[in-house]
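Researcher: Structure for this, please.
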Amino acid sequence: MTRESFKALVLNQDEEKNTLAEIKQLSLGDLPDEEVLVAVDYSSLNYKDGMAVSGTGKIVLQWPMVPGIDLAGTVVESASDDYKAGDKVVLTGWSVGEKYWGGYSQMQRVKAKWLVPLAEGLDAKQAMGIGTAGLTAMLCVMALEEGGVTPDSGPVVVTGAAGGVGSVAVALLANAGYKVAAVTGRESTHQYLRDLGASEILSREEMSEKARPLEKQRWAGAVDTVGGEMLARVLAEADYSATVTACGLAGGFKLPSTVMPFILRNVRLQGVDSVMCPVERRTIAWQRLAKELPESMLNAIEQVVSLEEIPEKAQQIMKGQVQGRVIVDLNA
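Model: Predicted structure, token format:
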């Protein structure tokens, strides 16, 4: 790679609106006209990236598109006073990889306001092992704390626990002393989740059964990445004054629930968004991740792929065949 010629994964559409993914050689003149030029070391593959690359749903809003909602690297040039050449930075969210060109390029130009400094104690690879998924998980943990949920409150359930957000949430909560129940649909992930700290494994089938308005109280808190019937069951099983955080909709965007958990058990349903999250809160979350997510756990939830391997891996993530976090090495 040189500054004059570098590779990127570029998405286009054919006449039938099918998404085409191709590795291309780009130059700086091809990049967006933004304030900060970053040499990208690592990106990651999230469910949303899988949707974009596989052409599932309407994720990509502009064509052509360089996908990749995360990136970590080094500032090469900056027209912003906030960053200078040599600074280590991380970018997640802000519709990058959907509306704006993203992390699947060895060089990328981005807005300064999208960036946060790489937290002390992390390198670029570790940061992308965390990525949007890990940031979202940390924001969920922070929301649980703000809702008054402590390790002494009782067990916390994590749905979609073998996925990116769920894996990091299990690790963070267990490391902080919470008793964690992990929900998964794959028996092959049971030991993986126990290694991350889960003390109980629940089946997807059990937690997807249609719930009555109120069920037996089980959970002091929850990190829900699934939505749909599973979120409705979690709410119905929530303890009095529990906090349930919701950050995903893999199981559907509808919530077939009632007001009963909220008005009879004082349950709080807290939405968690990492895309437009303010920089100040992001910075706190990243600093906490650097300190609170054990390196041994971080290494247990990552796999590394090259830019060329992304299309195949995107198909796998859409089929639910990917465990934990997928890191993209832009220089592999």
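Researcher: Any notable elements?
Model: The two ends are 11 Å apart (CA to CA). The domain at 6-118+302-329 is CATH 3.90.180.10 (Quinone Oxidoreductase; Chain A, domain 1).
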